[in-house]
Design goal:
The chain is built from six helices and seven strands. By secondary structure, it is an alpha/beta fold. It has a single domain, classed as Vaccinia Virus protein VP39 (Rossmann fold, 3-Layer(aba) Sandwich). A seven-stranded mixed β-sheet has the order 3-2-1-4-5-7-6, sandwiched between helices. Helix 3 links the parallel strand 1 and strand 2. Helix 5 runs parallel beside helix 6. The longest helix is centred in the N-terminal third of the chain and has 23 residues. The protein starts with a helix and ends with a strand. The structure holds S-adenosylmethionine. S-adenosylmethionine binds next to helix 3 and strand 2. S-adenosylmethionine (SAM) binds next to helix 3 and strand 2.
Length: 206
């Protein structure tokens, strides 16, 4: 096939492959590390000594990057339904972040309010667009509840979201909960055209 559609497919594959190669060479577990790297380079999410909670962390590339960026004085707690092969200087909790006992455990591990909550959570896809969009929106809302509960006054919440039916409601919901919401589309994410990231600051306390 020639023409714009095949060019688009070629570009998507090329971008994806080059980040996969870079991730493998740099020792990151997934190319998703480059999405967060680009967001942090622009938004300055991480600071030395920060305490970070990474929701939906498996296989672990965001946690790997977070550890590097917060330095030896920082802390990273990674949460996922799936097991995560240990990462140096990352505390791993396996389970559903929505479970109250897991939340209590993570908050006890953090021992105080945290600087950054990351959410790259993705549900199992059903293939039915309306169902999948609703599942994603629910995860983002619950992750933002969690973030509001645990974040410091100047804390930051970074979440993945997908364009679709509920997207504008979802962004508006975050704007109701955070003083500032920036929409970012890292180039490492170009392949997945519906995916964007929202960087939310100034949590409004519940
Ligand atoms: C796209 S992956 C995350 C990739 C990760 N950021 C990285 O860089 O390696 C999404 C993850 O969300 C996890 N997840 C989905 N729902 C969850 C839930 N309710 N509690 C904990 N983890 C969940 C999935 O198991 C999956 O590993």
């Amino acid at each position: 096939m020639t023409g714009p559609r095949s060019n688009k497919a070629w570009l998507r594959r090329h971008v994806t492959d080059s980040y996969v190669r870079r991730a493998r060479d740099a020792g990151y577990r997934s190319r998703a590390a480059y999405k967060l790297m680009e967001i942090d380079d622009r938004e300055h999410v991480f600071h030395k000594g920060d305490c970070v909670i990474d929701l939906g962390a498996a296989p672990g590339s965001w946690s790997q990057l977070a550890v590097q960026r917060v330095g030896p004085g920082g802390r990273v707690i990674a949460v996922d339904l799936l097991p995560i092969t240990p990462i140096s200087k990352v505390s791993v909790v396996q389970g559903d972040f929505r479970a109250l006992d897991l939340r209590d455990l993570v908050m006890a591990m953090a021992a105080g309010r945290v600087d950054v909550v990351l959410s790259d959570l993705a549900p199992n896809v059903s293939g039915i667009p309306l169902v999948d969009q609703a599942r994603v929106a629910e995860l983002v809302e619950l992750a933002s509840d969690f973030a509001l509960l645990v974040l410091k006054q100047n804390g930051i919440f970074v979440t993945k979201a997908f364009h679709g039916g509920a997207y504008s409601d979802l962004v508006q919901g975050l704007k109701n909960r955070f003083g500032e919401v920036a929409v970012r589309k890292p180039s490492a994410s170009r392949g997945e055209s519906r995916e964007t990231y929202l960087v939310c600051r100034a949590p409004k306390k519940l």
